[in-house]
Design a protein that fits this description.
The chain has 280 residues and is an alpha/beta fold. The protein folds into 2 domains: 160 residues, Rossmann fold (3-Layer(aba) Sandwich), CATH 3.40.50; 111 residues, Rossmann fold (3-Layer(aba) Sandwich). 48% of the residues lie in helices and 16% in strands. The chain has 12 helices and 10 strands. The protein is globular, with a radius of gyration of 18 Å. The model has no long low-confidence stretch (mean pLDDT 94). Bound molecules: D-glutamic acid. D-glutamic acid binds next to helix 4. D-glutamic acid (DGL) binds next to helix 4.
């Protein structure tokens, strides 16, 4: 279905409060956002899309990411979602506008949410951001933070190795600790007082990262920030599901790789069922 037809369907009726929330990511990582949403909004149904066949996005070009992102957003809009959430920092960094241009329903993204939370957390306005190479090279966090607070001082660091280490399950492993220490050296040298975890995978490393940066630096979890922003949006637009019945969760993926269940359940913190493979 083209985005024009989708727009007409939504315009005719407006978003339905009983419709699900659509969340998408390059793979399983966005389940950290789903987990935060399940905890914050326990009566909302969710359709999650993870592009497991084409992950990782963090090292791909802007054109490729924009193309994949459009496909995924259109897929979820066909499911008549009431809100679209870009859970992937990399997609949010380079393709958020593409999604906003085609979507008739409100679009939220992790970068916006993370930027707001970082500014709420910092006292000194010295903020650190870590993410994939594409996210960091896009300067999207710097733009989002400077738009809100031009005097904020940002130190960014790409941490390409952290995604594979998390997927390996090395959440508290000496190799991960050494890698994080190495990446964070230049960030710590700038005396930041808050650190944005600008990648879906990093919330799983929170205890290790807190250890590495010390107790005086506040970690900003963009997944939690996203859930909070979604709750505010649903309130503002009167889109909370009025039914107090158990919600439906569906997980759409483009491939079911080996260990998908294990990794997915680690991210979600609960059993993963209703997994459907989309044949593209
Ligand atoms: N989901 C991506 C992000 O948040 C990390 C995985 C990837 O590179 O695709 O940036």
């Amino acid at each position: 279905m083209t985005s024009t037809i989708i727009t007409r369907i939504h315009e005719a009726s407006g978003p339905d409060p009983r419709s699900p929330i659509g969340v998408f990511d390059s793979g399983v990582g966005g389940l950290t956002v789903v987990r935060a949403l399940m905890e914050r909004l326990p009566f909302e149904s969710i359709h999650y899309f993870g592009d497991t066949a084409r992950v990782p996005y963090g090292v791909k070009s802007v054109q490729t990411i924009a193309h994949y992102t459009t496909q995924i957003a259109e897929f979820l809009l066909e499911k008549r979602v009431k809100v679209l959430i870009i859970a992937c920092n990399t997609m949010a960094a380079v393709a958020a506008q593409v999604v906003r241009d085609l979507s008739p329903t409100p679009v939220l993204d992790v970068i916006e949410a993370g930027a707001l939370s970082a500014l709420a957390a910092t006292h000194t306005r010295r903020i650190g951001v870590i993410g994939t190479p594409t996210t960091i090279n896009s300067n999207a966090y710097a733009r989002a933070i400077h738009n809100l607070s031009p005097d904020a001082r940002l130190t960014s660091q790409a941490c390409a190795l952290l995604v594979p280490l998390v997927e390996e399950g090395w959440l508290d492993h000496p190799v991960t600790r050494m890698t994080a220490q190495e990446y964070l050296k230049p960030v710590l040298a700038e005396k930041v007082d808050s650190l944005v975890l600008g990648c879906t995978h990093y919330p799983l490393l929170k205890p290790l990262l807190q250890d590495v940066v010390g107790p005086d630096i506040q970690l900003v979890d963009s997944a939690e920030a996203m859930a909070e922003q979604t709750a505010d949006l649903l309130t503002e637009l009167h889109l909370h599901n009025p039914d107090r019945t158990p919600p439906d969760y569906h997980f759409w993926v483009t491939d079911v790789p080996l260990r998908f269940q294990t990794i997915g359940e680690r991210f979600l913190g609960r059993t993963l069922s209703n997994v459907h493979v989309v044949a593209w």
